[in-house]
Amino acid sequence: MPCSDPTPSGREERAAEALKLIIDFKNLGEEINYPKGFNGDISGYSIFGSDKYLNEATDILCSFCRIKGEDFIYNGRFKERRRLADWWDEHKEIDKREGRI
Fold it and tell me: Could you give the CA distance from residue 25 to residue 43 in angstroms, rounded to a whole number?
């Protein structure tokens, strides 16, 4: 029987990206918390099922961005901040499209 190669859902991919950002900033010493029940591992196949953290991870990153401000987010000298800026721009666009702002 061939090995199954499932593809993560869009929600799982968005959750994994948010979790990776949280992990990266935590590792850089920033005051940011993991979602409840998340152990800090997003390697390999652990992306599957990560969508259960999507809402809380999004809330955590949104708060982090609002606290840090645009000077921090859009400082392109740091790769983590460039990824955060991309995430933040997409997050604001989704909020706008869904009528939250």
Answer: 16
pLDDT tens-digit series, residues 60-98: 999 999 999 999 999 989 999 999 999 999 999 988 888
CB atoms within 10 A of CB 40: 11
Instruction: State how far the alpha carbon of 69 is from the alpha carbons of 6, 22, 64, 79, 98, in Å.
Output: 38, 16, 8, 17, 23
Are 71 and 33 contacting, i.e. CB atoms less than 8 angstroms apart?
Answer: no
Q: Which of 78, 72, 98, 46 is nearest to 88 (CA)?
A: 72
Distance between terminal CA atoms of the chain? 50
CA angle centred on 75, ends 38 and 83, rounded to 5°: 40
Rounded to two decimals, the pTM is: 0.84
Question: Is 35 in contact with 57 (CB distance < 8 Å)?
Answer: yes
